[in-house]
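Following up on my earlier thread - several people asked me to post the actual chain instead of describing it. Fair enough. Here it is, all 201 residues.
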Amino acid sequence: MIHILQWNGVIEDRITDPEQLRKLVGEPHEAVVKKSIAQIDSHVRDYLARSPLFFLSTTDRQGWCDVSPRGDEVGFVKVLDDRRLIYPERPGNRRVDSLLNLLDNPRLGMLSIIPGMQEVLRMNGRAHITSQEDLIAAQNFSGKTPQLAVIVEVEECFIHCPRALKTSGVWSYEDWLPKDEHPSVSEMFQAHLAINGMKLK
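Reply from S.P.:
Thanks for posting it. Predicted structure:
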């Protein structure tokens, strides 16, 4: 059974400036700040070579945000040099939200995952979209060579602590929700179309 809880009270004690926030959470340890680097070193290369999935964060010029998963063969994010990486942009539903955002605002965030590993790799930088055939073909991406790829100039990367994945138990198979209890994607899709006045035949 799904229990729906609603809050009907007034939202108070809103945090509005960095000083308020710091009084509550404190200052980060020096090592937490200095673990961030602005290059793709051998450790970052090794992590990317073992990862089949990352989450891409983009924003358009109005500030509307989007997060989208990108998955392919293990190591599909290729390193071009110690500052740049490239990943394939596979055909999808043609919404291309992330690509349109990158045309508006080239800044992005990437969160790479290795299945079973609690620590994630975070990277931030600037990107541009390319259709350069010889460059894309040279990456030997699996399957059909994509028409488009995204090149990222890495400005910041660091390993993120394991707390979120550890406490969520996301890799604990025995705690996974049984498939017959999964939300119905089909019902959700149809319901959301109906909200917008559309019904599939």
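The radius of gyration is 20 Å. That should answer part of your original question.
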